[in-house]
Write a structure and sequence with these properties.
- There is one protein chain.
- The protein is α+β, with helices and mostly antiparallel strands and about 450 residues long.
- It has two domains: about 200 residues, Cytochrome Bc1 Complex, Chain A, domain 1 (2-Layer Sandwich); about 210 residues, Metalloenzyme, LuxS/M16 peptidase-like (Cytochrome Bc1 Complex, Chain A, domain 1, 2-Layer Sandwich), CATH 3.30.830.
- The protein is about 45% helix and about 20% strand.
Length: about 450
Amino acid sequence: MKKNINSHYNKMDKLKSGILKNGFSYYIYENDVESDVIRISLLVKVGSLMENDNQSGIAHFIEHMCIYNSDFVHENQDNKDFKKNKLISGYTNFEQTVYYLNCKASQLKDALSIFKDIIMGRNLVISSMNQVEEELIFEITAESKSPKFRLQQAILPELVGIRNLKDKLPLGKLDCIHNLSFEDVQKFHNKWYKPENSAVFIVGSTEKCKCKELLEKVFSTIERSNLSYVKPFFNNYKSSNKVLMNIVDSLKYDEMQLYYLKPVIYYNSMDDNLKSKITDYFGLTLIEGYIKEALRSKEVDFISLDFVSEQLLSELNFSVLELKVKEGILKKAEYVFNIIKELASHGLSEKQFIKYKQSFLYELTEYYRQNQVISNKTITKECIKNYLYKEPLISVNYEYNLCCSIVQELSLKDFNILIENIFKNENLLISFNSKKNLFESKDELERILKLNQ
């Protein structure tokens, strides 16, 4: 058995991680905050980007079929129809499929066996093709009407530079789902569901479970395929600055979103990576606070304004500024653009920087004070990020102390450089989302774009 993953940087003392001889990765974390509950997750590195054009939704279809034919159920005998309420859930995105369930310690072996069945393809049952198809048709029909889905179709292809990405959304396309054969499902599963392409995460009251022995017993018998996982290839798109106008009838508020593509940086160490992420978070938080304060000083009303980092498709990372308003989105967007231009040109003053830094550190302390207890779900998410993106795993106390020390050491010069890197980004997309067309001409679109240059 191989040594622990990233053991040098792992500050989570209760974590045990490693790789079985067949390439199957595992993470075990002892977390007793949820009594006898254990959260188990299986991740397979396969999603909609691995699909051929005529297979749109096949990864999602396999997820549903594996869940549909799972034996890990709770039988509700009070129900006259004696329906089985499945405890296993899942989701599929562009690059991963994840299955998860909560169980008791006494059920751990049975739960792991269900995940083994998924990897082995035992849950692919030809007689359930029609039922699974009906499930997906219902989900696709409902979700495709949602504002989120319609905006994904419009914005994501422009963001990542894959023009046909709207045809590769994980949900799938109705005509492709309808035409899938059982042979198609089997071939796709056999190609991607491999131990070296998968990881299991066990988080909860695991102390008495002998998890490592169970993992060995359940999963080590699966043969390694010796086929290396190939990450989906796409060109790192260099877009010219652009403005989109998306009309979505069901939106509650008008929105303006600024997407800034971050450059791909390869760090020499985990410490450098972590410092960069903390610095970035600190910077976005301060910029968000500065813009909000400036808007309020001008008595500009808005529903919300948030500046966040968003990761799409492996190494594509964006800083996203989103403004929501009840009315007057164009005028209020202009206010935001002018504030950004001023901030990008002049940065913060020393006095402003000290004030915002003190406020940030206070809010950071309050946040960590209130979040000392971490759920099984949250810990699992952190472990998944480590598996997929090599993000360091650290304890809450260590993370808090590290955040404070890094932020305290940041100078005004460092911060103003960060501002410049964000706002003078060559890869910028502005998306206006509204119930109606906000622009009368292409010239007006270009005028809006120039406001943020």
